[in-house]
Amino acid sequence: MRRKITLKQIARELDVSISTVSKALKNSKEISEDTREKVQAFAKLYNYKPNNIALSLKNRKTKTIGVIIPDIVHHFFSKVIRGIELYANKKGYNVIVGLSNESFDKEVINMDMLANGSIDGFILSISKETLQLQDYHHFNETINQGMPIVMFDRVVNEIECDKVIVDDFEGAKNAVLSLIKNDCRNIALITTKDYVNVGKYRTQGYMAALETSDYVPKTEYVLKVEDESLSEYNLLSLENEIKEMLTNNPEIDGVFAVNEIYAITAMKVARRLGKKIPNDIQIVGFTDGVISRHAVPGLTTVSQHGEKIGEKTAELLINRIEKEDDFEPFKTVVIPTELIIRESTKQNLTVSN
Amino acid sequence: MRRKITLKQIARELDVSISTVSKALKNSKEISEDTREKVQAFAKLYNYKPNNIALSLKNRKTKTIGVIIPDIVHHFFSKVIRGIELYANKKGYNVIVGLSNESFDKEVINMDMLANGSIDGFILSISKETLQLQDYHHFNETINQGMPIVMFDRVVNEIECDKVIVDDFEGAKNAVLSLIKNDCRNIALITTKDYVNVGKYRTQGYMAALETSDYVPKTEYVLKVEDESLSEYNLLSLENEIKEMLTNNPEIDGVFAVNEIYAITAMKVARRLGKKIPNDIQIVGFTDGVISRHAVPGLTTVSQHGEKIGEKTAELLINRIEKEDDFEPFKTVVIPTELIIRESTKQNLTVSN
DNA sequence: ATTACTTGCGAAAACGTTTTCGTGTTAAAA
DNA sequence: TTTTAACACGAAAACGTTTTCGCAAGTAAT
Fold it and tell me: On chain C, which bases lie within 7 A of the protein's CB atoms?
């Protein structure tokens, strides 16, 4: 159980100086071949590897990026992480993960823990509470200290940084247009409260689709749900709200839901009410997760390509980190969505953007 | 865009020594009240925070733990991460995540990246390829360098370290016993190849349940699937294999599947074959993920309590890290499973262990 | 034989902390 | 007045690297 060997120990053992060892290991030609071989053999024997922390201190960079997301038990976010990790690893970076758990305080604490030298930059998606409070001081402070940030999905105009988003508006609009082309006359929307801006944009996309088709949006067809948390209790109340909407408005023949859970729940409730899918009612969700894929019938949904989002955020961040004095203007990259057609809608078209 | 301020800069600015600044900030009473206040005011003004990397180097510990898992887009693993993060954060630790993507090489590379000073200990679950190759040298080397490891779920006897596992055997046995008590006479098993040892133990649990009930296991009822990866192609071949088993053995009235995907797919296939669930055929899965919860009908399943597993691994690891010279024997903690009864089985009992 | 260059190596600084051990000044005790 | 003790602070080492610079010895050129 020998501890990790250091340059100093090798130097002492071989009776040379630390500098010599360091240079020998880097094949510096300042060092004679004899010494080089001797040192390298010894180092290999004892499996010498330079200490990352010492390197970080010396180089003032850690080759590590911090990722702060609201939740990891969530198909979209874990896909994004996978994309980040993929790209970062390829570039020799590590990924350190903080979960805000949708809480403002935990977001701040996590950022504080990491912002003091542990990482070279942040990738983050804003927590709901922060969005609601509209308190973004911690982001600005971090940026002012020279630490680059890239935001994705849940972003906010107030912060100047690189961003990677999905075209929520277009994606939603296309989804609803596909319902319209599929002969839906009365299309409902199940969405979140407006402070979640991805929900807001998807709602706007729904409205836009209706308007371009000369449909008149009816407020009875719009359900704004308080929270998308999955606790059993909320799931029940979600079911009840949907049931109420569908029974009060039996003419509804299409549903666009801003996430998988709402969509699958709508499907469940509709069937319980005796409606056939997709003949009586067609349903489209958002996020191509495991639920959509394995539901029966399969759920037509808007795919966000989370992994691509992750790769792109990592790419933007690492670029910023590595050419630091390069004052490029901040970019906002939009990753196109794709409508994945499955059995919850009728099969007579393909739309994508 | 001022860079982070350091002790040295404060010292120069205030015309005192670095030591004085350091002590003043720690409220050492070696320092006069005057100086203390002056330093603290200045530090607060410039938002001084000690550099973590420097501290890590000095203290020779990083307050960071490395987690290596095969996949993050996976309900169970992301739950575990959440548990790890929860406990670790409470103890002031950060979590750095590496994904092996079920590959031996990536597992080794990831461990190498982290083992050189970046972290104080590992939490990991072994990749399938490593399990198949049975090459565990990288684990042993890491342990020999004095770095503690805690393994969970996919563990292996050959490595001496703390472990946290689910009682796969008992969980599976109970699940199958519940089917038997529910009057199933012909129970099929859908499992993985044997090198995935959690699959192996669950298979053994199935066998044990049959034996204790004087059922004779039939090989026609056992389906060993090559790979649980979710690609569309494999999903189709999975469906076909299940279909074949169910049509060749129409008397099958119960299915135990070693994961959610197999279970939900079995359900899908069974219904396509005109079988009613749970009346004609009852189905039990393993892992209480989002699929089981949102399936229609809801899937009865064995819950592993991933979050608890995560918390426990973190607890074991941090204990090892913090009392380092304490030569406690290695523990293996078993987290009890729980059978979550939903609509895919008949409703006349509750079993748990 | 003197100068000039090459070769091979070591000393030391730097990254940002914490902590031990002095040390000079002042106040209290002898 | 001399000794002792308390007080307030600074110097320096240490953590493990990399890198610049200097220096001695040997070799080549004058």
Answer: 7-12, 14-21
Q: How far apart, in whole angstroms, are the C-alpha atoms of residue A37 and residue A34?
A: 5
Cβ distance A314 to A84 under 8 Å?
A: yes
Q: Interhelix angle for A52-59 vs B52-59, to 10°?
A: 140
- Per-residue pLDDT at B232: 63
The pLDDT of residue A231: 61
With H, G, I as helix, E, B as strand and everything else as coil, classify residue B190.
strand
Instruction: Give CA–CA dist B128/B282, Å, rounded.
Output: 30
Q: Report chain A residues whose CB lies below 8 A from the CB of B109.
A: 89
Cβ <8 Å between B94 and A74: no
User: Hey, how many other C-beta atoms are within 10 angstroms of the C-beta on A90?
Assistant: 12
CA B324 → CA A167, B60, B129, distances in Å?
Answer: 51, 13, 32
Q: Does A351 have pLDDT greater than 60?
A: no
Q: Which residues in chain B show pLDDT less than 70?
A: 1-2, 227-233, 324-326, 348-353
> pLDDT by residue (tens digit) across A296-349?
899 999 999 999 999 999 999 999 999 866 688 999 999 999 999 999 999 864
Q: Check if the beta carbon of residue A283 is closer than 8 Å to that of residue A263.
A: yes
Q: Identify the CA nearest to A211 among candidates A172, A251, A258, A250.
A: A172
3-state percent breakdown (helix, strand, coil) of chain A, nearest 5: 45, 15, 40
CA closest to C1' of C16 belongs to: B54
The pTM score is 0.93
pLDDT value of residue B352 = 44
**What residues in B contact A265, CB-CB < 8 Å?**
294
The protein residues having a beta carbon less than 7 Å from any atom of strand C are A 15-20, 29-35, 54, 57-58, 60; B 4, 6-8, 18-19, 22-23, 25-26, 30, 48-51, 54-55, 57-58
CA–CA separation, A188 vs A180, rounded Å? 12
